[in-house]
Specification:
By secondary structure, the protein is α+β, with helices and mostly antiparallel strands. The chain is 30% helix and 24% strand. The longest helix is centred in the N-terminal third of the chain and has 18 residues. The protein is globular and about 60 Å long. The N and C termini lie far apart (69 Å).
Length: 419
C-alpha cells in the first residue's frame, strides 16, 4: 500500500514538474476567492483520498514549509489546515477549472457587462462589443433595478454579482432604469461565449501609439505584436513613442507577462521566481530584439494593476526602458501553479513561488512605485465588481476622447512629445 502510494506521488511529481510555473499566475483584484472561503461550503464534501492528494501537494509544493499534520479526523480539522494557506491558493471544482481555462484562453460565457456600486445604486459601467448585453441595447449608466424579477435594492455589489452569475437558466432578465425613459426597461439576455481581445489600441497624430492591455491571456503576445504592427502601418513610419496602459489589469499568465516584456527589451532580467523546490526557481532574461527599436515608452498603472501587469511594469522600469506614471500598484508578488487532481476534472491552484523584480525586490503587499505619481481618484474603481472586464473597440480614440479628463494620458503625451 505504501509503495503504491509512493509511486502515485512520484508520478504526480513528474507530471507536475512539466506544468509548474508554466501554467498560471492569475489574480483578480475584484473577484478573488480564497481557499478558505471555498472550504466553508465545499471542501467538506471531498473524499478522504482527495483530501490526502491535496495535502500531499501542499506539503510538496507550497511556497512555505508549513507544519501541517499528516492526517486528520474531521472536515473541520482539514479546513483549519487549509486556512493556513494564502488567499490565492484554492481548490477548483470542475466548473471553476473550466472557467479558468476559458479565461486564460480569452473566452468568457456570460452577458458581457461590467457593474459598479455608486450612491446605493448598481450602475452599468460598460458593455462588451457584440456581447448579448450590447446587442440587446443595454447602455452605459443604465441603473440596474432587478435580476430575474428580484430587486437589487439594499444589496451590495457582491450580492448583485452573485445574483447574475448564479442564475440556473441560460437566460437572465435584467430590469434597468434609464434617465431618458419614464418607465423601467426589461432585457432578457441569453448567455453566450464571448471571445475577448486582451489588447486594444489607437494612434495619435504625433505618431504615438496607445496600447491598453486588459489582461494577460495565452493570446496577449500575439495581440500586442499585431496591434503595434498595425499602428506602425497606419502611421506609415515607426512609432515615435508608446503609451502602455496597464490600469485595472488584474493579471494573467506568467509566460504572457514575460513574453510581452521581452518584446520591448534588448537584454536584462525580466523576473525571477523562488520556491521550495527546483523547478519553482526560474530566471527569465530578455532576448535581443526590441519591437519599437528604442522608441520611448510610458506605462500607466494604478492600484488595480496586479500580478502579471506588475511584472511587465517592473521589468520595463528596472531595465530603464519605460517611465511609469500613476499610483502604487496592487502588490501581488506570488506565483500560482495549477495541479491536476484525480482524473484531471478538478485541480489545486497553489502558490508555489514568489517573484522578484529585476532589481531583486519583492512587491508582495507593496506594489510597484511609479516614477511620476499621479492620483486619479475619479477613475479609481477599486469598489467595482468585474462581471466581465471592459474591452474598448479599436475605433475608440483615447487621445481625442479622454485628453481633457485623463491626467495620466495628458502627462504621458507630454513626456513622449518632449523626448
Amino acid at each position: 500500500m505504501l509503495n503504491t502510494q509512493l509511486q502515485i506521488q512520484q508520478l504526480q511529481y513528474s507530471v507536475f514538474n512539466r506544468i509548474l510555473i508554466s501554467y498560471l499566475l492569475l489574480v483578480s483584484v475584484f473577484l478573488c476567492l480564497s481557499f478558505n472561503s471555498f472550504a466553508v461550503t465545499s471542501v467538506g464534501d471531498l473524499k478522504s483520498q482527495q483530501k490526502n492528494e491535496i495535502l500531499f501537494n501542499i506539503h510538496a509544493y507550497y511556497v512555505e514549509d508549513l507544519a501541517l499534520q499528516q492526517s486528520f479526523e474531521s472536515s473541520q480539522q482539514f479546513e483549519a489546515l487549509l486556512a493556513q494557506l494564502d488567499p490565492y491558493s484554492k481548490y477548483l471544482n470542475e466548473h471553476e477549472l473550466e472557467a479558468l481555462f476559458s479565461s486564460t484562453n480569452g473566452r468568457y460565457t456570460g452577458l458581457g457587462i461590467e457593474i459598479k456600486q455608486q450612491q446605493q445604486k448598481i450602475i452599468i459601467v460598460n458593455t462588451i462589443k457584440d456581447s448579448p448585453a450590447a446587442i440587446a441595447g443595454i447602455q452605459i449608466n443604465d441603473v440596474l433595478l432587478a435580476v430575474n424579477q428580484q430587486t437589487v435594492a439594499h444589496k451590495d455589489i457582491n450580492q448583485v454579482a452573485q445574483m447574475i452569475k448564479a442564475s440556473d437558466t441560460a437566460t437572465v432578465t435584467l430590469t434597468v432604469e434609464r434617465s431618458n425613459s419614464p418607465q423601467a426597461i426589461y432585457f432578457t439576455l441569453t448567455r453566450s461565449e464571448i471571445n475577448l481581445e486582451s489588447v486594444t489600441s489607437s494612434l495619435s497624430e504625433f505618431g504615438i501609439g496607445y496600447l491598453a492591455i486588459n489582461s494577460f491571456t495565452n493570446h496577449t503576445l500575439h495581440d500586442v505584436a499585431r496591434q503595434i504592427t498595425a499602428l506602425q502601418s497606419h502611421y506609415g513610419n515607426p512609432l515615435t513613442g508608446l503609451v502602455l496602459d496597464l490600469r485595472d489589469n488584474p493579471g494573467g499568465t506568467l509566460q504572457s507577462a514575460v513574453a510581452v516584456s521581452d518584446l520591448f527589451l534588448q537584454s536584462g532580467t525580466i523576473v525571477t521566481t523562488k520556491g521550495r523546490f527546483y523547478d519553482a526557481n526560474q530566471h527569465f532574461r530578455a532576448k535581443k530584439g526590441d519591437i519599437l527599436n528604442g522608441a520611448p515608452i510610458v506605462v500607466l498603472i494604478n492600484e488595480n494593476s496586479a500580478s502579471a501587469a506588475e511584472i511587465l511594469a517592473a521589468a520595463l522600469k528596472d531595465n530603464h526602458r519605460a517611465t511609469l506614471i500613476g499610483s502604487q500598484s496592487f502588490g501581488k508578488g506570488s506565483v500560482q501553479s495549477l495541479i491536476p487532481l484525480g482524473n484531471g476534472n478538478t485541480a489545486l491552484k497553489l502558490t508555489t513561488a514568489k517573484y522578484f523584480t529585476p532589481s531583486g525586490q519583492s512587491i508582495e503587499g507593496i506594489g510597484v512605485t511609479p516614477d511620476v505619481a499621479i492620483n486619479q481618484s475619479t477613475l479609481s474603481q477599486i469598489d467595482k465588481v468585474v462581471i466581465i472586464k471592459n474591452e474598448q473597440g479599436n475605433d475608440d480614440r483615447p487621445w481625442s476622447r479622454k485628453d481633457s479628463a485623463d491626467p495620466l494620458l495628458l502627462k504621458a503625451q507630454q513626456l513622449l512629445t518632449m523626448k
